[in-house]
Amino acid sequence: MTTTSAPAIEVRGLRKTYGPVVAVDHVDLTVSEGEIFGVLGPNGSGKSTTVECIAGLRRPDAGSVRILGLDPVTDRDAVKRTVGVQLQSAGLQAKLRVREALELFASFYDDPRDPLELATRLGLGERLDHPWRKLSGGQQQRLAIALALVGRPKVALLDELSTGLDPRSRREVWELVEEIRAEGTTILLVTHLMEEAQHLCDRIALVQRGRILVTDTPDGLIGRTAAPLIMSFVPDRTLDVAALTALGGVSDVMERSGRMQVACDDTAVLAVLDRLRDEGVRPEHLRISESSLDEAYLDLITADADASESDATAKETV
Ligand code: ADP
Ligand code: MG
Q1: Residue 318: pLDDT band by 50, 70, 90 thresholds?
Q2: pLDDT above 70 (res 47)
Q3: How remote is the CA of residue 211 from the centroid of ligand 2, in Å?
């Protein structure tokens, strides 16, 4: 394979500590030009610290960061003109008005969007003269997104893109993000919403305790779980749950409001149906669906947490 262009973001061996806390521990990641790349992980896993290092707002203890080929710490000015950043704490002056903030941020860039048009799209058209401090949480969030995107940046770093937004605003923000990517912006976003990650991201990195556990496409992540399928049905009589659970390829059997849910891989589907037939159980309203990114996330994060716990126990006992 021949590579045509340098990656938009390249992070190698990134490490950042706060006193005794290792917030980011040897993170490697590469985001290609034009990609929407998601970072998912529990609170405190180092997502924001990573974004801040990529944006040049924090100096790494070790490792290297390149964004559009630039070092974000030493090439700070050049990075500021081409990168848009939405931080979890926007840190704007309380009295700065929406219009002023947008015009100020637009002035940092060579070819910005029309700030008023962007404000209108994000539902802030009637709040232009409001000081930042008087906006609701969701409005502050939308302004932060607008400020990150107003400069038509080559790369946008969006930390907790749609946290606190109502479902409709969230959809509008998704549309905007997709449109901006179509115009050529590379996007790295942090999110806690699986639906958002699945909808928007080409690839996702799962992080935990400052490390990347896995990087893959949303479908690839789902495929990595032990149970990529969910069979669900209403049994017409009591069934032997233990016997179902013991079948090869079945990883979990649970009941949810009268429906049985069998989490399994595709080799187990026929075995489950055979077992039900042998027991004389009819699976009514049978549905077989793909496991969701939600389940894949919990599976992968929990498996890693369990592994590190037994590691720790092993170390304590030696
Ligand atoms: P996330 O964004 O994934 O929730 P953060 O990068 O904010 O994670 O935090 C990672 C870890 O670093 C946490 O343990 C957090 O408490 C700690 N941390 C973050 N910022 C600071 C700071 N400014 N000073 C000290 N510790 C911090
Ligand atoms: Mg964070």
Answers
A1: low
A2: yes
A3: 14
Cα of 17 vs centre of ligand 1, distance in Å, is 9
Q: Are 222 and 228 in contact (CB under 8 A)?
A: yes
Note whether 181 and 161 are within 8 A (CB): no
pLDDT above 70: residue 151: yes
208 shares its domain with 240: no
Q: In 3D, which of 315, 311, 297, 310 has the Cα closest to residue 45?
A: 297
pTM of the model: 0.87
Using the 3D structure, point to which of 196, 217, 238 is the last residue of a domain: 217
Q: Is residue 2 part of a domain?
A: no
Q: Which residues pair with 149 in a beta bridge?
A: none
Q: Which ligand is closest in space to the CA of residue 52?
A: 1
Q: Which ligand is nearest to the Cα of residue 163, counting in written order?
A: 2
Report the nearest atom of ligand 1 relative to the CA of 160. 2
The amino acid occupying position 173 is V
Please name which of 131, 140, 127 lies closest in space to residue 93, comparing C-alpha atoms: 131
Cβ partners under 8 Å of residue 201, min gap 6: 36, 37, 38, 189, 218
Q: Which domain holds residue 149?
A: 9-217
CATH of the domain at 231: 3.30.70.980
Would you state the pLDDT for residue 317?
Answer: 56
Instruction: Assess whether 38 and 179 both reside in one domain.
Output: yes
CB atoms within 10 A of CB 282: 13
Percent of the chain with pLDDT over 90: 81
Average pLDDT value for residue range 58-72:
97
Let me know whether 233 and 198 are in one domain: no
